[in-house]
Write a structure and sequence with these properties.
The chain is of the alpha+beta class. It is built from 6 helices and 23 strands. It is rod-shaped.
Length: about 300
């Protein structure tokens, strides 16, 4: 009986105190009004109807829907999306899809493909969800779609990716003919490249000759926004210089030309070289005149006796 009385007293004393810790009691004209205590740092509650009508995400401007990269380079596909009031969108709502096979590549920051060349680049608090494709290949070309889930459905933005692989060419065709002792000048051209090559190597057969100081080789490369030229020059061509010359850029298919060096006996003779350069009529004078040719012909006929 005594134990029951003590328990009843404890219950009546402590339970009201627990209630007061969870609420605030205010007296107003003698009447108690109890309100829930305000939690510090709590977000403002947004009704569902306002969420669906006022906070639908939208895509930003200023990013191209058509991206061109070279093979083996890195592609960046932009998806700028934000809520009204310049607030970022929660990451589980963003997905990148490859339209060719409707493969979901990423959702939020999670990759849903075994191809580790694909990644999402996102900085906390920013608005741009970037699909990164490393070492782009021809098969990566096509349409990619950035999908954003909203309370009223899905909105999307498509980006078309072009993967190109320019081919270099050497001016003058596939063969180059020079006389022995003449200077050599080969020009390699790379066009329609989004970025210039990091380097261009020249090869004579299988040997790289960019820095062949002994042979007197010079390589001069110049570039603008879409075109790059590389010129290889050296003097006094000889037979050992014959062979294949290949221009090999870092980001394009190589080009090859075959060099032929012709030995010219007249060009090698100093006297003949001076006569030719001076406009001499030495070469025609070596041929017999017309009267002399007729005389020789009749003499040959008279010399032949009939049997």
């Amino acid at each position: 009986m005594i134990k029951a009385f003590i328990s009843l007293c404890v219950f009546s004393v402590f339970i009201p105190r627990l209630a007061y810790t969870r609420s605030e009691t205010h007296l107003n004209t003698g009447t108690d009004v109890t309100r829930p205590a305000k939690l510090k740092g709590s977000n403002k509650y947004v009704p569902l109807e306002k969420l669906s009508s006022e906070l639908i995400p939208e895509f930003g401007e200023g990013f191209s829907n058509n991206v061109t990269v070279q093979r083996e380079s890195t592609a960046f596909l932009n998806c700028p999306v934000k809520n009204p009031g310049d607030r970022p969108v929660s990451y589980p709502l963003i997905s990148w899809v490859r339209i060719r096979d409707w493969h979901i590549l990423t959702n939020g920051l999670v990759r849903f493909t075994t191809d580790d060349r694909f990644n999402v680049l996102y900085k906390e608090g920013s608005f741009n969800w970037i699909l990164q494709i490393k070492f782009a290949q021809d098969r990566d070309a096509g349409i990619y779609e950035c999908q954003v889930s909203t309370s009223t459905g899905t909105i999307s933005r498509r980006v078309n990716l072009n993967v190109i692989y320019p081919e270099a060419f050497i001016k003058g065709g596939e063969e180059y003919h020079v006389d022995e002792g003449s200077p050599i000048s080969l020009t390699c051209v790379i066009e329609s490249t989004p970025t210039p090559p990091q380097y261009i190597f020249w090869y004579h057969n299988d040997r790289m000759v960019n820095y062949d100081v002994e042979r007197g080789v010079k390589v001069i490369t110049s570039s603008d926004s879409t075109r790059t030229e590389s010129k290889l020059t050296f003097a006094n061509a000889n037979k050992r210089d014959e062979g294949n010359y290949t221009c090999s850029p870092s980001n394009s298919a190589p080009a090859t030309v075959q060099l032929f060096v012709t030995r010219n006996s007249f060009a090698a003779d100093p006297v003949m070289k001076q006569a030719i350069s001076g406009g001499s009529r030495l070469m025609p004078s070596l041929a017999p005149s017309l009267p002399l040719q007729i005389g020789l012909l009749f003499g040959a006929v008279a010399y032949i006796k009939p049997s």
